[in-house]
Amino acid sequence: MTITLYGFKSCDTVKKARTWLASNNVPYRYFDYRAETLAPETVDDWFARAGWEKVFNRNSTSFKELPDADKAALDEATARGLIAGDTNLIKRPVLDTGDQLLFGFKADAYRDAVTQVA
User: Fold this and answer.
1) For the segment 18-53, what is each residue's pLDDT rounded down to a tens digit?
2) What is the DSSP letter of 6?
3) Fold entry, domain 4-117
4) What is the DSSP string of 26-60?
């Protein structure tokens, strides 16, 4: 299974993850969801595997700029729709090993995840 890293180039945490993967000789596919369209099925898969609250980034500027009514009514369906309109609402980066989904970057978690794939 191919490991895929999702994010966008200008994110510092994505840069750290890409640097770690490269320096540890981990082959992976990089999906920049600002350059490519993220399929709704991918988000649905993440929601099914990890839960929408794990995927949704409540700390993003995009979330903080939402109207209070949208924040108060947040549920899975609303989160899916908001992400479809603004991928900044996804916690990043997303590392998909096929078996595991990791959100954010922690070297120890990445090491454990890629070791299980090898």
Assistant:
1) 999 999 999 999 999 999 999 999 999 999 999 999
2) E
3) Glutaredoxin (3.40.30)
4) ---EEEETTTSPPPHHHHHHHHHHH-HHHHB-TTS
pTM summary value: 0.92
- Both tokens of residue 88? 């900044």
Q: Please report, for the chain, the start and end positions of each structural domain, with discontinuous segments joined by +.
A: 4-117
Q: Please list the active-site residues.
A: 11
Instruction: For residue 18, give every residue at least 6 positions away whose Cβ sits within 8 Å of its Cβ, in sequence order, or none.
Output: 5, 30, 93
For the cut 70, the answer to whether the pLDDT of residue 72 exceeds it is yes
Instruction: Show Cβ contacts of residue 98 under 8 Å, excluding neighbours closer than 6 positions.
Output: 1, 2, 3, 117
